[in-house]
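--- STAGE predict ---
source: upstream dedup step, 1 unique chain passed
mode: sequence only
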Amino acid sequence: MKFEGTDGSLGVHNYFFSIDIDGNIKAADLIPEFCMKINEKLGQ
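--- STAGE serialize ---
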């Protein structure tokens, strides 16, 4: 699982979302707030 900014950092608006949980969910451009929410949910 990884969250990367479009420039390789976490300081940009568009993110690449890559995750493998019970299958493959990859390649999605998400806004930082949404990424944070997903990260929080996965962390619980």
